[in-house]
Specification:
six-stranded mixed β-sheet; Maf protein; 5 helices; alpha/beta; globular
């Protein structure tokens, strides 16, 4: 029987994305969705908000919980929008308005100074209160206008590093037939093995809750 970890989200698409990424590192681990109440995310860092969500999910389910918090950080804006990425144009969480406001704020900024990165922090909270966070960064820069309708949020203006000049494109304009890179993947990579060591120790202490067999 596989071990289980709850992902602190009500979004089934995010659960599927996490399950796919986690399977590369822990193929024996089942990622399940969360059906409990959503906590108030009043942290001022990605790590604080991820921990708030993971603590709530673990407390509600009795399972180890994963949660992420992410956003886009623009160098010339001192790292903003950052944790306010979803609310950059107001509490309506209007993705189009957020994107257009950011483009307007950078309208006079030349291409060499438009560096940005998607930042994602993953939190793991165990039933005994053990906590661990890891951070991943996806570097790139912002286009001067939107390109493509794929992805979500700021994807239509984010140009990831590592592309050849001739084939350079925003995440939003990546061909649908290709699997778009995930901004979450860097934080859940093998480089973050400490997170999985923490979970392994949790499995050994709570085999009945996790559905695993213990040591």
């Amino acid at each position: 029987m596989s071990a289980r970890v709850v992902l602190a989200t009500h979004n089934p698409h995010k659960v599927a994305e996490f399950a796919q990424i986690v399977a590369r590192v822990r193929p024996d681990l089942e990622v399940v969705g969360y059906d409990g109440p959503e906590p108030v995310e009043d942290g001022v860092t990605f790590a604080e908000n991820a921990l708030i969500k993971a603590r709530a999910a673990s407390a509600h389910t009795g399972l180890p919980a994963l949660a992420d918090d992410s956003g886009i950080c623009v160098d010339v804006l001192g790292g903003s929008p950052g944790v306010f990425s979803a609310y950059w144009a107001g509490h309506a969480k209007d993705a189009t308005a957020n994107l257009e406001l950011l483009l307007d704020q950078l309208s006079d900024i030349a291409d060499p100074h438009r560096a940005a990165q998607f930042v994602s922090t993953i939190a793991l909270v165990a039933p005994d209160g053990t906590e661990h966070t890891v951070e991943g960064r996806w570097p790139g820069r912002l286009a001067t206008e939107r390109s493509g309708e794929g992805g979500f949020g700021y994807d239509p203006i984010f140009i990831p590093d590592g592309q050849t000049d001739a084939a350079e494109r925003t995440v939003g304009s990546s061909p649908p037939r290709r699997s778009r890179p995930s901004r979450t993947a860097p934080a859940l990579s093998r480089r973050s093995c400490r997170c999985w060591k923490t979970f392994r120790a949790t499995e050994n202490r709570y085999p009945s809750r996790l559905g695993g067999n213990g040591p």
